[in-house]
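Ticket #463: bound-state structure for adenosine monophosphate.
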Amino acid sequence: MIKLYNTLSRKKEPLKTRSTKKISLFVCGPTVYDLSHLGHGRTYISFDAFVRFLKSQGYKVDYLQNITDIDDKIIQRAKETRVTAKTLARRFEKEYLKDMKALGILSVSKYARATDHIPEIIVQIEKLLKKGYAYELEGDGIYYDILKFKDYGKLSRRTSLQAEDAVSRIDESIKKQNKGDFALWKISKKGEPKWKSPWGWGRPGWHIEDTAITEKRFGSQYDLHGGARDLIFPHHEAEIAQMEAISGKNPMAKYWMHSGFLTVEGMKMSKSLGNFITIQDFLNQHSVRILRLLVLKAHYRSPIDYSDKLLKQTKRELERIDEFIERLKLCKGKTKTSFPIKKFRKDFISVLDDDFNTPKAIAVLFNVVVKGNTARTKEVLSEKNAKEILFFLKEIDSIFGFIFFGRPNILPPPNVILELAEKRENFRRRKDWQSADRMRKTLIDWGWEVDDTPKGPRLKKIS
Ligand code: AMP
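RESOLUTION: The complex was predicted; output attached.
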């Protein structure tokens, strides 16, 4: 039974979906005004692995993500770069989708743009006005009156902003009835993008796009809502206030999952602090596999402090697994032994069942590497054992996306191969041709060919 920590109840709860083995999941998507950074990557890799895990357990997951393609930041950046807000948004939406593909994020069922949902947004605002949850400020817009919704604050357990909230988008207006009231519709200023509404030409507030998008696809209630923790307040609190006021049903989402930040020296990676690395810059230098391991070896709710040290350490860990796999592929042992693969598999699933504890799952993986290597050096690992382990590693790979298998050979040879090649080179230098030849044969047994070029020996994987 899968258990999840629910931000709404502050407890781990068994996952009981509204319909058996089907899950409706909404995760807040990006605001497309610039390139995405590793912080965004962290959040979306975590949810991608989580969805892959649910699918591996037989769930059908309808994973919906919004694209915020109209917002103050987009309008501002468009002005600065002298393009229309729409041109800018489409450009960075394309970059975002490209980045997600490069990160191996293929689990999202649908991306939905805010601006494709203007009629649904208007209907929701009309309902809020009719029910008395919203009020109009002439020439300014429509605001939500947070005092009218008695449950306001039930997710975050508060009603006012704190430092780490998504503060960039508080809707300032001196005429608001309460300080915390937020905009549902903003009357557009001259030159700003605008859509026709019963209250004048304008554009939607940030929170209403998500409830319009989720109601259209899931109805007024669904299973799971996710996002990074800075969105708990005011964004997710506002979503609840809107949807539950409109439908009169609660909860809007039964479970709320919030991921921790990717930080740099303890500070959230963000555009505004300038401490960011774009996903594209990272992938120009490193493999996506390293980022996925770096993200998933932390629990999704914990912060990850990004550093060169962490990057190097993760690289080494990945190499250890890669080497282990290479050795397993060549394992031809005949000895009949029992390697406890079933137990490892059971442990792996049971820690993921427990609030998707990926660090513990990766610890199981390393345990397999250690035990497997010990058995191999003692020559008690049979070919059959090796195949079973490889099969298990493939299963792990389908959830975590570390690409252990089936990738082109762009990685450097594992250390064990480099050491053998070095030994061969030393024999050659001493003109001990017989030993050098023996080493060449050993390398071939390991699946590597050595080519002596004018620039020195070059290793090539035998495919
Ligand atoms: P934004 O485009 O700023 O709306 O962010 C899109 C998503 O990425 C939201 O769920 C953010 O909370 C999340 N996010 C932004 N920065 C970070 C970070 N440093 N660590 C983790 N998640 C982040």
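RESOLUTION NOTES: The CA atoms of residues 32 and 172 lie 22 Å apart.
TICKET STATUS: resolved
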